[in-house]
């Protein structure tokens, strides 16, 4: 009986530790803490796009500098009305969102994207 109780406690402790690690990693990657509070707008031409989970990554050429724009997950892009074809190489895209707090990190978490003058709202509940 004592042995099985110890196993149970070890299993519960291990499960709790793994849960904390998983939650903290998800919050660090998918949260907004790494980004500035103020809105940031950037416009450029698509160099490449890797769409999919956990979110899409678009590389923009902005006056000769490459910027990484984090766009939505496939379901979020679909809900906003975006199609994969819109992310073609050379397409003109504007991203509105929040840039990295690290000035050396040319990365933006997009809330809205603009193609051909039309705005696609990835996060309709965020202002």
Task: Write a concise keyword list for the protein shown above.
single chain, 127 residues, alpha+beta, OB fold (Dihydrolipoamide Acetyltransferase, E2P), five-stranded mixed beta barrel, 2 helices, 6 strands, globular
CATH T-level fold name of the largest domain: OB fold (Dihydrolipoamide Acetyltransferase, E2P)
**Basic shape:** globular
Helix content: 25-40%
Low-confidence stretches: 16-29
CATH class of the largest domain: Mainly Beta
Distance between the termini: 57 Å
CATH A-level architecture of the largest domain: Beta Barrel
Q: Biggest sheet: strands side by side, in what order?
A: 1-2-3-5-4
Mean pLDDT: 83
What is Rg? 19 Å
Would you tell me the structural class of the helices and strands? Answer: alpha+beta
Tally of strands: 6
What does this structure look like?
With 127 residues, this protein is an alpha+beta fold. It has two domains: 1-30; 40-121, OB fold (Dihydrolipoamide Acetyltransferase, E2P) (Beta Barrel), CATH 2.40.50. Helices cover 28% and strands 35% of the residues. It has two helices and six strands. It has helices at residues 2-30, 74-80, and strands at 40-50, 57-62, 65-70, 92-99, 107-115, 118-121. Strands 1-2-3-5-4 form a five-stranded mixed beta barrel. The longest helix is centred in the N-terminal third of the chain and has 29 residues, at 2-30. The radius of gyration is 19 Å and the shape is globular.
């Amino acid at each position: 009986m004592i042995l099985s109780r110890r196993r149970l406690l070890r299993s519960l402790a291990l499960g709790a530790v793994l849960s904390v690690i998983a939650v903290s990693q998800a919050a660090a990657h998918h949260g907004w803490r790494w980004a500035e509070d103020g809105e940031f707008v950037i416009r450029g031409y698509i160099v490449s796009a890797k769409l999919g989970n956990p979110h899409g990554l678009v590389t923009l050429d902005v006056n000769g500098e490459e910027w990484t724009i984090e766009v939505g997950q496939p379901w979020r892009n679909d809900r906003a009305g975006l199609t994969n074809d819109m992310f073609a190489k050379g397409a003109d895209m504007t991203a509105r969102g929040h840039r990295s707090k690290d000035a050396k990190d040319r990365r933006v978490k997009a809330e809205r994207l603009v193609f051909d003058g039309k705005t696609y709202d990835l996060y309709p509940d965020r202002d």
